[in-house]
Amino acid sequence: MDEIQSLIGGFGVALSWFNLMLMLVGIMLGVIIGVLPGLGGANGVAILLPLTFSMAQQPGGATSGIILLSCIYWGALFGGAITSILFNIPGEPWSVATTFDGYPMAQKGEAGRALTAAFSGSFVGALFAVLLITFLSPLVAKFALKFGPAEFFSVYLLTFCAFVGLSKEAPFKVVASMMLGFALAAVGLDTVTGQLRMTFGSTSLLKGFDFLIAVIGLFGIGEILQTMEEGLAFKGVRAKLKARIVLDTWKELPRYWMTSLRSCVVGCFMGIVPGGATPASFMSYGLAKKFSKDGDKFGTGVIEGVTAPETAAHAAGTSALLPMLTLGVPGSPTAAVLLGGLMIWGLQPGPLLFTEQKDFVWGLIASMYLGNIVGLIVVLTCVPLFASILRIPFSIIAPVILVICAIGAYTVHSSMFDVWMMLLFGVVGYVFKKLGYPLAPLVLALVLGDRAEDSFRQSMLMSQGDMGILFSNGLVGGLTTLALTLLFWPLISMVWDKVRGVRGKS
Amino acid sequence: MQLLSRSLSLVSAALLSCAALTVSPVLAAWEPNKTVEFIVPAGTGGGADQMARMIQSIVAKHQLMKQSLVVVNKGGGAGAEGFLEVKGATGDPHKIIITLSNLFTTPLASGVPFSWKDLTPVSMLALDQFVLWVNAEMPYKNAKDYIDAAKAAGPSKFKMGGTGSKQEDQIITVAVEKLTGTKFIYVPFKGGGEVAVQLVGKHIDSSVNNPIEAVAQWRGGKLRPLCLFDTKRSSYTAKVTTDMAWSDIPTCKESGFDVDYLMLRGIFMPGGVTAEQTQYYLDVLKKVRDTPEWKKFMEDGAFNTTALSGKEYADWVAKEEKRHYDLMKEAAFLAPGK
User: Which one of A160, A334, A335, B138 has the fewest CB atoms closer than 10 angstroms to its CB?
Assistant: First the structure.
């Protein structure tokens, strides 16, 4: 097979001491970037991009450059889970869903298990995506081209419906929370009309509500407020620290192979489409909850609830590089920066990259295998270290978290206004928890609402207002039907039970 | 990010000061005494962002500045976020901003209170071209074929994709409609790369992408350029595909509709800075333009390399603003009260 030959050639390019060192440096920087909320992978890669410029002038230097940058990206994907699990503060948007079960696990004293599950899940997802890139690139790239605005909208609809139809909170509370998210997402500039909406003349509101600021406030600050009320102590303090925790968790993980496989598929689909890692993690969590035997226990700290979103997020994050390489369209903000990098180094991403820059492309693909292995080793060896952070008394760690949150909120747009917004969101998060409103739908609507609205209105423009465009071909029709089925799933299953019950009696 | 960029700037500052010991300064004019913020009023990965990061890379590589240059994206509200920040930083010589057409379109369309007159023009870097693209599998061989087909199909049948709403892409679309009597459905997308892929996937019928946004798909045989929105053909004669160079694309004027539009890629500083401070950046940018890396970047993106500065530049900007006002007024894109 050609691919295997090229891949072996790629390993020849990527496997040098210099490149391995770059991988290690990249992963470590990436983990730090992932841990700090507000400092996203895209920012991290962008900051370091100029450093690679002189590197790229040497022969084979472009490969080294992209190895460094892509390893920062892998590191950020790994690192996002750490604070989600330990403190309920998602370091990256795609680790929001990881908090749902990861944080309860940490509270039960199982932080080490949760972290191992998250990292292993990430690795599995990445490996699946890299295999896909290695062997199916041309085929998959064609599939991505089938996605127009209507198809995008149906994918977003599917994400929302999977989440609403499958959540166990009171449906009206879910809808109320989600609508608030949509309203917040609508603030700022409207892409379709070019007009400002709901800014009330305030220039601070021009840029809209950034998802990261809301998440840092709702989850991080909200959590700290609640912990203060409940007695100033982390519940996970008595975490037992065992060096064997990694191996013990690994023994358990193969049991959930079905969830992993499903998450890999969801993740790759969303990465290529490109819907992105964040919707992938939410959708995967929703589906895992639906199809798992322990679905009812989701949210109380089950290991599947951690692996599902992490696997999908990493699979999506990795496969997002595929459309970048083959089509020249980035599948994620970080991929967009990497794309800029390619151009600065004098490479032209797009259909010809695979034939014109064979060494570079296969070197990069080989580095994806190596980088993720290096990454897994780095983060797994640190599991006991990360878990032991929870042993620090609350009175010391809480102010530190507050400061990190504030810095994170400030860095998103370098704006003090955002720090005040973060505190406000913290209070909102606290009130929501007290009143039993779920936060996840709000966050989901805030991150996807804008994009869902854009693609809906683009498709309405294209069809001149005809809703039929959502059923105009097999792909979009199938997605829309699936979405509606999931939305009304509770009703459908109720009717189904009734029908079966009637039959059973007669 | 602040922390990281600070430590990075420390490292580069250390490196640069080593360099400074060996190179004695030619003239002891004004120089930045701390890190310079290079604001991009657009998101990461777009055309302006790429150019800013290219400049940053060249400055770092050739050690053109003693202090480091840090790119900051402030793209909220179609760039208003970045422009308002520079407007508010009157007299601060440690901020520069790269502009695109949203310098004119954003205040006119959204009514956000800023104008180029709040800023100090430093230098024009280049002008970005626009090309009419169609999917290569479509039968249209030239712009006339395509316009005729659009006319024959009737109004609101053909879809034109573009970046943003009431910005340069839609302004060009309206200008084409006015001159040819066609009527497209204009579908706004978030970025140029997205538009190119939608065109390859045949979800839209045509686009007016910048060369750099669609060149990869052109070389890959997926897209076909029909005409260039400029008064004369491109000056780049090196073959891009097997049989065509940028200079082989006819102008739209040759094709029967005289629409020309060039997008400003230029540098501004906040208002109230001294002539010495402007001169410093002007010198740095001149050195940037002389590097081989910059020249290659210009050619890859088929940029029009006109570079004005000083009064000429200010006059050009004033003229462009008037032109945008007229174009947008005609298209009814102006915000109420403008």
Answer: B138
